[in-house]
Description:
alpha+beta; Alpha-D-Glucose-1,6-Bisphosphate, Chain A, domain 4; 6-stranded antiparallel sheet; two-stranded antiparallel sheet; 2 helices; globular
Amino acid sequence: MVREPREGGRWYERTTDGKECDWGRVLVWDPPRHVALAWMIGVGFVPNADPALASRVDVTFAEDDAGRTTVTLVHSGFERHGAGWESIRESVVNEEGGWPRILEGYARAAGG
Length: 112
């Protein structure tokens, strides 16, 4: 996954063969505290360029007293995707390739 580090920037996936698939746009870029992204992948995991049909992903970072960081991810507004939105929520929240796997990879990369 690639995020352009600015509000309005692209959020996309680049495959090993160099192909790109847009996932959405950066809504908030406030390092080191918060990033918000428009999830513009519709039912059937088809990209949808209409921002009115996008859900929202908010990621916050909070340092605790021990110098560790708590990362909180909230993906909301699934119903904006229209009929069948429940399948998107199920895939990204509960399935092996969804947010749990992505967050585990992030934790490994961060040394956690």
